[in-house]
Amino acid sequence: MLTEYLRGLLPRPSTVDVPDTVLEATARVDPDHLTRYARVCGATLSGPLPPAYPHVLAGGTALRLMADRSFPFRLPGLVHVRQRITVRRPVGVTEPLTVRVHAERLVPHRRGATVDLVTDVLVGAEEVWQGRSTYLRRGATVPGAAVDEEPPEPVPATAYVVVPNGIGRRYGAVSGDRNPIHLSAATARPFGYRTAIAHGMWSAARCLAALGGRLPDAYTVEVRFVRPVRVPGRAGFGARFDGTGGVFALSAPTDDRVLVAGSWA
Questions:
Q1: Is residue 17 one of the residues assigned to a domain?
Q2: Mean pLDDT of 233-259
Q3: Structural domain of residue 74, as residue ranges?
Q4: How remote is the C-alpha of 238 from its chain's centroid?
Q5: Where is the MaoC-like domain (predicted)?
Q6: pLDDT by residue (tens digit) across 3-60?
Q7: C-beta of residue 104 within 8 angstroms of C-beta of residue 114
């Protein structure tokens, strides 16, 4: 992955567009890697794969696509702002998987421009999992008008999530995502951050782990990374359930501002 990340540092053509490339790879779960992931994210090792783990499993394939010069943005400084995960059925740890990744939907954002990376995970011909990751390049310009997002729904915190010092390096080691904004304050400052910020997918995985056994066998999770989760620190966690799904949030412990907002159904 280091070679791919270094390729991702190279300048991009002046014409910004989304490549029509589709990359495919086979994958099998390494039990040792899954154990390290579970320790970092607080996920359980019993039963099927944790819901956010296929994102990590497909990380090398996604990085190859993003590192290519046809991808519209260089890797350093990209910010993960939204994530959708669709679990179509529980995925067994020993199942042989096929991963397909493509990019689409390059659109304006009030802070720049975003592009979506779509990951499909299949067992044979059956799609069992899909992820849609939206990445922001601050200051980029593309044609069109940005769409305003609804304010995130606050959820009263009932517990706290500890954000340990070095969690960006630990999650980067298991995911391969070594974006400098996550690694240390020194490497994050050139990109406009006072401290390192946690990976969005670590925050999402930590929230999903906190929901425990309340998630059904098939569902879609929508997550917005509203404000940076600073490293180190802590965040309030709250969740509300209804008959068909629910909402959850991480919030700042000092003023209850929403940091991460999510829902599932």
A1: no
A2: 93
A3: 2-11+22-143+153-264
A4: 20
A5: 169-235
A6: 555 554 555 555 577 889 999 999 999 999 999 999 999 998 888 999 999 999 999 9
A7: no
The two structure tokens encoding residue 75: 């890797």
Report the candidate in 25, 203, 28 with the shortest Cα–Cα distance to residue 102: 25
Residue % of the chain over a pLDDT of 90: 72
The CATH number covering residue 107 comes to 3.10.129.10
Number of domains in the chain: 1
What are the pLDDT digits (tens) for 165-184? 999 999 999 998 888 889 99
pLDDT score recorded for residue 11: 59
Cβ contacts of residue 265 below 8 Å, gap of 6+?
A: 219, 220, 244, 245
- Asked whether residue 148 is domain-assigned, the answer is no
Contact, 248 vs 211, CB < 8 A? yes
Residue partners of 145: CB distance under 8 A and separation at least 6: 108
Residues in contact with 231: Cβ distance below 8 Å, sequence separation at least 6, in sequence order: 163, 164, 165, 166, 167, 168, 182, 195, 196, 197, 198
Give domain status of residue 98, yes or no.
yes
